[in-house]
Amino acid sequence: MELRSALAKVEDLVVLYVMAENQVNEKTRRFIDELGLRGRVRFLVDPGSATMDALGIRLLSPEQIEAGVPHPATYVLDREGVIRFVDVRSDYHVWIASEIVAAAIHQLP
Question: What predicted TM-score, i.e. pTM, was given to this entire model?
């Protein structure tokens, strides 16, 4: 199941993508535009990786290309900003199953 399709009818869903400064570029913006997600995806640039540090998800011993990059993490928050679901991974090659994220979103109060 593609997560975009599974959540297309969730009208007030917004995806906040937290990125290190070195990750934000025109290629990233073009990718979101090509998927037609500009209205649903917001980018938060994290200067100095302060938010990533506060959440404890910054890579501790990154290779040079990974400097300032977090562990892959998915958070689901309700309308009041309460965290209802968290998934943090250490392996970039293993993504969370879209069904798990969709279920977490559909269980929001």
Answer: 0.72
Number of domains in the chain: 1
Token output for 70: 């977090």
81: left (phi over 0), alpha (psi -120 to 50) or beta: left
Q: State which residues form the domain around 17.
A: 3-106
**Dihedral angle computed from the Cα positions of residues 92, 94, 100 and 104, in that order, rounded to the nearest 10 degrees:** -20
Please write the tens of the pLDDT for every residue from 72-108. 888 999 999 899 999 998 877 888 888 899 899 989 9
Three-state DSSP at 81 gives coil
